[in-house]
Protein: VanZ-like domain-containing protein
Organism: Zhihengliuella salsuginis
Amino acid sequence: MFLVLAAVLAVAVLLAYLPALRARRHVVGRMLWVWATLCWGSGVLLITLVPRMWGFDPARTLSLIPFASFSGGLGLGGSVLIEVVANCLMFGIGGFLLGLATDKTGLIATICVGLALFVEACQYALALGRVASIDDVFWACIGSLVGAAVARRFKKARRRRQFAGTRIEAALGEQQG
């Protein structure tokens, strides 16, 4: 299902950028970023809003006490650690993708936490048999901030390589001249 959605999103992005491509603008990198970000967002929604397939019980469970899952054993298959890592990785990818577009860490955290709050509210309101937990929002925020930090370091390293490349080209040009 996700692959079909990714293909539909790719076609939609291509159609949206078609005028820019016809004008021979260099937008392929931006197109890939938009597509990857849309795939990430839709993937988060698919993963978190699909009802549990095993023993589906349309119950509403809400956990507003931070880190209560560590003492209660709630979570994916009883493993809280898997849930923490999954949330951090899932939103870390989003933080990285958004971090490639902007250096505004607050904006990145706001977008990711907003998405996490939306997901948790939907899990509770739609009675998907999942636990709507404040811990998930916290770990989503941590993951997005780590992803944004990695993106920032990635962009700095890329700029240094580009700057070093122009200095080398300039030095080679002076030697030939």
Remarks:
- Residues 1-50 form one domain.
- The two ends are 59 Å apart (CA to CA).
- The longest helix spans residues 134-176.
- The mean pLDDT is 84.
